[in-house]
Write a structure and sequence with these properties.
374 residues; alpha+beta; Alpha-Beta Plaits; nine-stranded mixed β-sheet; four-stranded antiparallel β-sheet; 25% helix; binds fructose -6-phosphate; binds magnesium ion
Length: 374
C-alpha cells in the first residue's frame, strides 16, 4: 500500500505573506532528497503556493506515520531557521509547539494523506491553496464527485454510476458523518454549504471501494484558540478509470467561486486558479490562489509534476476572479466581503464591547420587540 502525503506549513513569507523565499525551497528540497536517499520516502518534491511550503511525498509508512510527520516537522524547523537568517516575515508562523510528539495533529502544519494500492496507471492531482480555509474544497469536491453537469462520467461511465461517499467533519464539535451520494445529495449540501464549519475530509468510490480524494482539515485558528495564521489547505485527488477524468477534476475551478480567508483571514474573495509562477497573492493579500500539480505516479515515484492551471483555458476564470475581486472590494468593511463577526480571524470586537458597554442603553419601551409568549 502506497501513501501520498502532502504536509504543508507557512514558516515565513517573502515579502510579507505573499510568497516563499527561494532559499527556503532549496533547503526543503535538499532535505527531501536526503530522505529519499536514506529510504524514509520513496519519492518527494517541494512546491509552494503563496507563503506556504508543501512537501509532497510518497512512502509505505501509512497515514499519520510518526517518522514521516517528524521528518516534515524537522524540515519546517530548518526552513524557519532560513527565514530567520533572511529576516523573512512571520518566521515559524505555523509551528505552534516547541517539541514534536508523535504526529503533527494540533501542532500547526496542515496535511492531507491518501493510502492506496497503485493502479497500472495512477494519475493524481495535488491541489495547494493560499489565503483560504479547508472548507474551500467543498464546492469543487461536490462538483467533481456528485454533479453530472460537471462530471458526465457520473451519468455515462458504468464504474461511476453508483456514485461516491463523502466523509464530512464538523470542525466545531469534532464529529464526522458519511453521506452516500446520490441518495444523500441534498443532506450533504445542507452541511457542506457552510464550509467554515463542515468540511469534506475524504471521498470514496462506491463501485471501486477506493479512496478518491483527501483534504487537510485542520483549522489553525481553532487549534491555537487565537489567530496565528491562515489554515491554507491542500487536497489530493486521484483521477481516471472509474474516477473523475483529469478534466472533470479541474473543471470546477473554471468558476472562481468565493472563499473565506483573504486579508487578515477575514474577507471573502474569489478563488483564482493559477500556475505556480502566478501563485503569489499580492492584491489585498489575495485573491486566494489555487495551484494544481498533476503526477503520473509510477512504482511509488511521483515523476515530473505538470502545472495544470498553466493553461489559457483558465484565463477566463482568472479574468472573472479579478472582476469579482473589484466588486467585493467596493464593499470595504461591509459583509459579505468582510466575514461574519463570528468567523473573523482578526477582531477588535471584544475590546470594543468592553469599552462601549456603558454607552449602550436600553431602547425606549415603545421601540422594544414584543417578547413572544412561547
Ligand atoms: C496571512 C494573511 C494576511 C495577513 C495580513 C496581516 O496569510 O492572510 O492577509 O493577515 O498581511 O498580517 P500581519 O498581522 O502579520 O501584519
Ligand atoms: Mg504567512
Ligand atoms: Mg499562507
Amino acid at each position: 500500500m502506497l501513501t501520498l502525503s502532502i504536509i504543508k506549513a507557512d514558516t515565513g513569507g517573502h515579502v510579507g505573506h505573499s510568497a516563499v523565499h527561494p532559499a527556503m525551497l532549496a533547503t526543503a528540497s535538499s532535505r527531501v532528497s536526503d530522505a529519499v536517499d536514506r529510504g524514509l520516502l520513496i519519492d518527494g518534491t517541494v512546491a509552494a503556493c503563496g507563503d506556504d511550503v508543501s512537501l509532497i511525498m510518497t512512502h509505505e509508512r501509512g497515514a499519520d506515520a510518526e517518522e514521516v510527520h517528524s521528518f516534515a516537522w524537522d524540515v519546517f524547523q530548518s526552513t524557519t531557521r532560513v527565514a530567520r537568517q533572511h529576516g523573512l516575515y512571520g518566521a515559524g508562523q505555523d509551528l505552534l509547539s516547541d517539541a514534536f510528539s508523535g504526529n503533527l495533529r494540533g501542532m500547526g502544519p496542515g496535511y492531507a494523506e491518501l493510502e492506496f494500492t497503485e493502479r497500472p496507471s495512477e494519475p493524481v492531482i495535488c491541489f495547494l491553496a493560499d489565503k483560504t480555509e479547508p472548507g474551500a474544497w467543498n464546492l469543487p469536491l461536490y462538483k467533481m464527485f456528485a454533479d453530472p453537469f460537471n462530471t458526465p462520467g457520473l451519468v455515462i461511465d458504468s464504474k461511476m454510476h453508483d456514485g461516491f461517499r463523502f466523509e464530512v467533519y464538523d470542525l466545531h464539535e469534532d464529529k464526522h458523518i458519511w453521506f452516500d451520494c446520490p441518495t444523500d445529495l441534498y443532506e450533504l449540501l445542507m452541511y457542506i454549504g457552510a464550509p467554515a464549519r463542515y468540511v469534506i475530509h475524504q471521498v470514496e468510490s462506491k463501485s471501486l471501494a477506493e479512496v478518491a480524494a483527501a483534504t487537510s482539515t485542520q483549522r489553525l485558528s481553532l487549534i491555537a484558540g487565537k489567530y496565528v495564521g491562515k489554515d491554507d489547505p491542500v487536497m489530493i485527488v486521484r483521477a481516471q478509470s472509474g474516477l473523475p477524468a483529469v478534466g472533470e477534476v479541474l473543471e470546477p475551478f473554471a468558476f472562481p467561486y468565493t472563499v473565506a480567508g483573504a486579508m487578515r483571514g477575514s474577507h471573502h474573495a474569489p478563488f483564482m486558479p493559477v500556475s505556480q509562477h502566478q501563485a503569489h497573492p499580492s492584491r489585498f493579500d489575495g485573491p486566494p490562489r489555487v495551484v494544481a500539480l498533476g503526477f503520473q505516479v509510477h512504482e511509488g515515484r511521483l515523476g515530473q509534476p505538470r502545472d495544470l492551471f498553466d493553461d489559457p483555458s483558465f484565463d477566463e476564470a482568472r479574468r472573472q476572479a479579478n472582476v469579482a475581486m473589484d466588486y467585493l472590494r467596493r464593499h470595504g468593511p461591509f459583509e459579505p466581503h468582510r466575514l461574519p463577526l463570528a468567523d473573523l480571524e482578526y477582531t477588535t470586537m471584544t475590546q470594543l464591547e468592553a469599552r462601549l458597554a456603558d454607552r449602550w442603553e436600553p431602547l425606549p419601551t415603545a421601540d422594544r420587540q414584543p417578547v413572544s409568549a412561547a
